[in-house]
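Support request from a user on the community tier.

User writes: "When I paste my structure tokens into the form, the page sometimes reloads and wipes my input. The last time it worked, I copied everything first. Here is what I submitted, just in case something in the input itself triggers the reload:"
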């Protein structure tokens, strides 16, 4: 479980406090990971297989002699078919072994380039925003705080009425307040701190109006 019921209640209360004096509506969204990165694992497996073939092509005599010793062969006459069979076996073995190794998510994430992780987190955050907040409030004042735990990355995406008044860099303090505790494993504390900062920005950008009411749920959405 990403959050206990008590932690979910704490975050919902923090959302309510942040929205108290603003027309803004905040939606916290938390996911274990934004993408399985299966394509990255496949790409690494293919790369390792080609690397093995390159090594075989660079020093064929060495590897053929090694196979002979391992298999206990003596003065074997290698045919073209045997060479191709060896290359196919090596490539298949390396590909399968690397693909199996990369089923370990921590390693797969470590081998995924940062720009790819950043792009996948952003794309998933946009999807979460479109499904949970975009155009779902009367004044288009929804804001999504999206947190992707495996990548240790977060995004703040605001609907048009807020985005027109708040520069993206203004959310920096909220992001810093979140990521500090998050790196230490304190997700709920980081969320509370970030929500307080988001509320402060929204009070300036979109103050509370007469007859405002809560249009979006306060509790976190767990994907």
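"...and here is what came back when it finally went through:"
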């Amino acid at each position: 479980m990403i959050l206990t019921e008590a932690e979910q209640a704490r975050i919902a209360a923090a959302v309510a406090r942040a929205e108290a004096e603003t027309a803004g509506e905040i939606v916290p969204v938390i996911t274990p990971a934004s993408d399985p990165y299966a394509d990255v694992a496949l790409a690494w497996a293919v790369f390792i297989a080609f690397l093995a073939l390159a090594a075989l092509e660079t020093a064929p005599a060495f590897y053929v002699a090694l196979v002979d010793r391992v298999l206990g062969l003596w003065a074997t006459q290698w045919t073209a078919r045997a060479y191709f069979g060896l290359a196919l076996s090596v490539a298949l073995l390396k590909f399968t072994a690397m693909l199996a190794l990369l089923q370990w998510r921590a390693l797969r994430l470590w081998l995924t380039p940062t720009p790819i992780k950043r792009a996948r987190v952003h794309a998933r955050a946009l999807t979460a925003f479109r499904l949970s907040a975009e155009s779902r409030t009367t004044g288009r004042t929804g804001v999504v705080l999206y947190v992707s735990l495996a990548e240790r990355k977060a995004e703040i995406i605001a609907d048009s009425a807020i985005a027109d008044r708040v520069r993206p860099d203004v959310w920096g303090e909220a992001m810093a307040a979140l990521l500090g505790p998050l790196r230490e494993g304190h997700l709920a504390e980081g969320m509370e701190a970030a929500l307080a900062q988001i509320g402060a920005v929204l009070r300036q950008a979109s103050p509370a109006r007469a007859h405002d009411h809560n249009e979006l749920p306060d509790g976190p959405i767990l994907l």
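Agent notes: The reload is a front-end session timeout and is unrelated to the input. Residues 5-35+113-222 form a domain with the Diaminopimelate Epimerase; Chain A, domain 1 fold (CATH 3.10.310.50). The two ends are 11 Å apart (CA to CA). Escalated to web team.
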